[in-house]
Amino acid sequence: MKFTIFKILTVSLLTLSIFLISCEPQRNMDEIKSQITDINNKMAEEMVEGNLMAGLENYVDDAISLPSYSPMIRGLDAMKKKAEEEMDSHYKMSDFNMETVDVMLAGNYVIEVGTYKLTMEMEGMPDGWKDNGKYVTIWQFQ
Fold first, then answer.
1. Which of 62, 82, 83, 89 gives a 20 to 30 Å CA spacing to 50?
2. How many whole angstroms separate alpha carbon 47 and alpha carbon 49?
């Protein structure tokens, strides 16, 4: 059997491709979910304490936020401005919980799907205002 240069190159490239795929770091999804949960818990705690700016350290400059009942917010600067406005408002977050339901790997990104529950204290509302919903966050490995 004769090997032509084409066959040798094809076999070599195929072998190299299999090697590179097998060298891709294996990611532990349970560990990733735990890390995301820790970040979310810390952010929720800071928000209840009134520090809405602290959690923004996790966002990139061109982040997009899709808050409930509000227009889309584009960019970290706009998100910081919105957080400042909310800190100066007449209501305070008294309870905030996030639950990561699922995490999915997509190359160098993790897609988090979760649910939240929150309670806001407001003047004239003895029981406060309660909200719950769902969210999606796209995380990038750094």
1. 62
2. 5
> What CA–CA distances, in Å, run from 17 to 27, 29, 78, 101?
20, 24, 43, 34
Closest C-alpha among 60, 62, 61, 65 to residue 83: 65
Q: How far apart are CA 79 and CA 52, in angstroms?
A: 10
- Residues 104, 120: Cα–Cα separation, whole Å: 31
Q: What is the pLDDT of residues 4-47, one digit of tens each?
A: 443 444 444 444 444 444 444 568 999 999 999 999 999 999 99
Determine the pLDDT at residue 124: 81
Sheet of 91-106, strands arranged across: 91-106, 109-122, 125-140
DSSP for 24-70 reads SPP--HHHHHHHHHHHHHHHHHHHHTT--SGGGGGS-TT-EE--TTS
Instruction: Determine the pLDDT at residue 25.
Output: 58
Residue 50 backbone dihedrals phi, psi, to 5 degrees: 95, 0
Measured distance CA(85)–CA(107) in Å, rounded: 36
